Structures are given as structure tokens and as C-alpha cells.
Amino acid sequence: MKKIQLFIVAILGFGVSAFAQDAKTDTTQNIAINTPSIQCGMCKDRIEENLGKMEGVTAVDVNVKGKTTTVSWDEKKTNLAQIKAAIVNIGYDVDDTQANQEAYMKLPRCCKKKG
Ligand SMILES: [Cu+2]
Which of 1, 17, 26, 44 has its CA 20 to 30 A from that of 10? Predict the structure, then answer.
């Protein structure tokens, strides 16, 4: 009887530790980044295409109306600072950081800030 109880405890313990390990190894992050200079569908396509090629980025969804870029990434391969820098280098403002001006100047007229 005691041996069986021990066995069950061992199995449960193993199950819990396996679960804990699983939670630990899931390093996926997800956040909506403020990208206030987005103007149109071309901006959406450009950011989604370029950011989508970035190592570690698993999903990108630009909301043109909401002016946000929702990104999922693997924390083991990249991080939020690198993702924000990549968006700046594509030619878009991120939070209060101005777009890379060289990239911004190359954007078509419809993708430039109005006014
Ligand atoms: Cu645009």
C-alpha cells in the first residue's frame, strides 16, 4: 500500500514539474505597440512584411485605424527594444521615438504624415 502511495506521489510530482517546465519554456510575448504615423493599407503591408521577416517574430498585425502594431515574438530570439527599433528603421514613429528619417523620406506620399 505504501509503495503504491509513493508511486502516485512520484507520478504527480513529475507531472507538476513537467508542467512548470512547460510554462518556463514558453517565451512567447505579445504586445500592441503605438505606431502613430501609420496612414494607410500600404503602411500596414510594409510593416507586416518587413517585421514578419525578423528573426524571432511570430506574428504581426497592424491596425491602421487604431495606429497600433500588435507583435508576437519569441523572447529567446529577439526583444521589444529590437522590434521597436526595426519599426523605426522601416520609417515609422514608435511611441515618442521619431522614424528613421532616411527611411521615412523614401515612403510614398500617401504613407507620409499629413499636415
Ligand atoms: Cu501608407
Answer: 26
Q: Which residues lie at CB < 5 A from ion ligand 1?
A: 39-40, 42-43, 111
Which residue segment(s) compose the domain that 83 sits in?
27-111
Encoded amino acid at 35, one letter = T
Q: Provide the 10 A C-beta neighbour count for residue 39.
A: 18
Q: What is the pLDDT of residues 18-54, one digit of tens each?
A: 566 555 678 999 999 999 999 999 999 999 999 999 9
> Is residue 64 within 8 Å of 110, Cβ to Cβ?
no
CATH number at residue 37: 3.30.70.100
Ligand 1 center from residue 103 Cα (angstroms): 13
pTM: 0.79
Whole-number Å distance between alpha carbons of 104 and 88: 9
The C-alpha cell that represents 68 in the structure block: 497600433
